[in-house]
Amino acid sequence: MSWLRRITSAALSSTARGIFSQRPNLPARMLSDVRHPPALLDRTKSQDRMWSRAIQDTIDRTAETTQKKNPPTPDELWAERSRSATFNPPADPYTGRRVFVNGDLGEAFRRLQTRLRRNRVMQEVSRQRRHEKKGVKRRRLSSERWRRMFANEVRKKVQLVSTIRRRGAY
Q: Which value, to the nearest 10 degrees, does the dihedral of the CA atoms of residues 141, 142, 145, 149 take?
């Protein structure tokens, strides 16, 4: 990378001198090609150094970003993330079905019922009261699948109708 710095610093110093300060030995044609207003051409040498230093810093930062090390391997990522993650294994079978009470017992009971309903715990309990034959289980699962697909199709049709109505049709 040192060869790049040498080339860029030489190019920058000549470029900076050419753009930011008037040079009497430049032909008039080259001065007319400069796209900066004449006020920018009347810079002092300290301003030239400041601008060239800023440009050089930008180039150095860009060169550093291209020289970054290779991306971490999956093993390194796993090790890094597992150091920062805290894994709390369930303490007992009721951990996911437990709700903390913050003073309002009714609200805590409603949250517990919602969680149990979402996890379908009562359905599972009622199913496990008796043995379910293989054929009965197959028919039940098939029926549940059919009901889910039917509900999904009805939902799609309702969305389509509401979209058409929003567009202005009756």
A: -170
Residues 114, 99: contact at Cβ < 8 Å? Answer: no
In 3-state terms, what secondary structure has residue 131? Answer: coil
Query: What integer pLDDT is reported at residue 34 of this predicted model?
Result: 47
User: d(Cα 8, Cα 5) in Å, to the nearest integer?
Assistant: 5
Residues in CB range of 5: below 8 A, 6 or more apart: 59, 60, 63
* Domain boundary assignment for the chain: 2-66, 98-130, 134-170
Res 21: pLDDT: 46
- Give dist(CA 109, CA 13) in Å, integer: 75
Query: The pTM is what?
Result: 0.38
What does the block give as tokens for 41?
Answer: 């051409």
Task: Please check whether residue 51 is in contact with residue 68, taking contact to mean a CB–CB distance below 8 angstroms.
Answer: no
Average pLDDT in the chain:
76
Contact 16, 52 (CB under 8 A): yes
Task: State how far the Cα of 151 lies from the Cα of 144, in Å rounded to an integer.
Answer: 11
Dihedral of CA 28/32/38/40: which sign?
negative
Compute the distance between CA of residue 164 and CA of residue 12 in angstroms, rounded to an integer. 63
Give the three-state DSSP class for 125. helix
